[in-house]
Design brief:
5-stranded mixed barrel; 455 residues; 8-stranded mixed β-sheet; EC 6.1.1.22; nucleotide-binding; 15 helices; 30% helix; 2 domains; asparagine-tRNA ligase activity; coiled coil; sequence-specific mRNA binding; alpha+beta; BirA Bifunctional Protein, domain 2; binds 4-amino-1,4-dioxobutan-2-aminium adenosine-5'-monophosphate; OB fold (Dihydrolipoamide Acetyltransferase, E2P)
Length: 455
């Protein structure tokens, strides 16, 4: 058998092939189709070649036999080469599994682009178990893997779900600026940039801008990148992340918590109901249980007691006391032990931001909330906001911030103030919880963190 003598030609007597994406092909048993994609897996037993084709919409098992399997063109195929295959969709035999329950019996195919073999082969570039930093250099290739691409599909469904809930709850979407001249969450994590000779920053949070939208548009939200020059390498901090933020007017702290609970429960419910994302969550996180309301509500002062009782120490290795920041490790231990979503509320003024409203019954603490999820910890931070100019100016003073750049934000208190509050959700954090990922880096397309700004 000489491979070189075999030419691959299309049999023109066959019915015309319908051009489809892989997910559509599953329903076309008995029909002749044309599908294009990347060779995800390749296996041959001399007489028959099996290809798993990938096109981003699904995976399709394809079978080449006879001359098609023997031709030199087929012998030369490599993983990640692109091909256009023509053939009939058939049901896989009883007891055999394949994506969509079907396979493509190929009658003709064309090579679109041959990927390298040998040292340059795809499998050498993204070898399993390779150093994570090498894999991050090859992020453009690792994205093609089953796990990362599944997380990105769940991410897509989650962002669609969150927008659906906001629509149902009557919030309007706005697009806030990324280049700003104000800080929101502390000067130490600001990315500075030279803006035509003036100092500017990459935004840490769109909150202040959202607050200015309330009188114009009512309740609002945005899905915008936020930037934090985090010095520490942790599994839940990125330098750039997708921040889902909302701001609501004329509501109480309890109403804010109720709204947040509805948002989280319904958006997760919609993801799980999604025909693509639902099964992917099951695959990534088989033990995932959809959260049910009402969420546990735990005041900061009671969390401190809980930490002391459970012998969990603060950053200095001492027992926790009122006023301590509950840092990542302790927070995670507490959340994992309790094992359910927790609204941790009423943090002391000193450990929170300048804009947070004090509680009327205890001015040492604020109407603030972190939503904590098992395995990840904090996924959301929010609060009610200070309503009067004087109190806001005192907040700036306490934090050592020059208020002059904030004139437009202060004006909100001058031209018709109102009780209002909002929150920010870290998209990659909620996904890490939903998809059971060890780090938020796995939930970002091209993660940025200290030391990594490429590709
Ligand atoms: O708690 P944070 O800092 O709150 C704010 O920025 C408020 N201004 C939001 C608001 O009220 N509109 O951040 C909110 C959330 C956190 O709970 C976390 O999920 C995420 O943003 N986050 C990060 N995610 C990844 N990497 C980082 N470096 C993050 N910093 C915060």
């Amino acid at each position: 058998l000489s491979n070189l003598n075999i030419t691959i030609e299309q049999d023109t007597s066959l019915p015309p092939a319908k051009k489809v994406k892989i997910d559509q092909s599953y329903k076309l048993v008995g029909e002749r189709v044309k599908v294009s994609g990347w060779i995800h897996r390749l296996r041959s037993n001399k007489k028959v070649v099996f290809i798993v084709l990938r096109d981003g919409k699904g995976y399709l098992q394809c079978v080449l036999s006879g001359n098609l399997a023997l031709a030199q063109q087929t012998v030369d195929l490599t993983i990640e080469s692109t091909v256009t295959l023509y053939g009939s969709i058939v049901k896989v035999p009883e007891g055999k599994a394949a994506p969509g329950g079907v396979e493509l019996v190929v009658d003709y195919y064309e090579v679109v682009g041959l990927a390298p073999s040998g040292d340059e082969a795809f499998t050498n570039k993204v070898a399993e178990g390779a150093d994570p930093s090498l894999l991050l250099d090859q992020r453009h290739l690792t994205l093609r893997g089953e796990t990362l691409s599944a997380v990105m599909k769940v991410r897509h469904a989650f962002l669609a779900a969150i927008r659906r809930v906001y629509r149902e709850e009557g919030l309007t979407e706005v697009t806030t600026p990324c280049m700003v001249q104000t800080q929101v969450e502390g000067g130490s994590t600001l990315f500075k940039l030279d803006y035509y000779g003036e100092e500017a920053y990459l935004t840490q949070s769109s909150q202040l801008y959202l607050e200015t939208c309330l009188p114009a548009l009512g309740d609002v939200y945005c899905v915008q990148e936020s930037f934090r020059a985090e010095k520490s390498h942790t599994r839940r901090h990125l330098s750039e992340y997708t921040h889902i933020e909302a701001e609501l007017a004329f509501l109480s702290f309890d109403e804010l918590l109720d709204h947040l609970e509805t948002l989280v429960i319904n958006s997760i419910k919609y993801v799980l109901e999604d025909p693509v994302a639902g099964p992917l969550v099951k695959q990534l996180n088989p033990d995932f249980v959809a959260p049910k309301g009402p969420f546990m509500r735990l005041e900061y002062k009671d969390a401190i007691k809980w930490l002391v009782e459970h012998d969990i120490k603060n950053e200095e290795g001492e027992p926790f006391k009122f006023g301590d920041d509950i840092a990542e490790a302790a927070e995670r231990k507490m959340t994992d032990t309790i094992g359910v979503p927790i609204f941790l509320t009423k943090f002391p003024v000193e450990i929170k931001s300048f804009y947070m409203k004090r509680c009327t019954d205890d001015p040492r603490v604020t109407e603030s909330v972190d939503l904590l999820m098992p395995t990840v910890g904090e996924i959301t931070g929010g609060s009610m906001r200070i309503e009067t100019t004087d109190e806001l100016l005192a907040g700036f003073k306490r934090e050592g911030i020059d208020p002059s750049a904030y004139y437009w934000f202060i004006d909100q208190r001058k031209y018709g103030t109102c009780p209002h509050g909002g929150y920010g959700i870290g998209t990659e954090r909620i996904l890490a919880w939903l998809c059971n990922r060890f780090t938020v880096r796995e939930c970002s397309l091209y993660p940025r963190f200290s030391g990594r700004c490429k590709p």
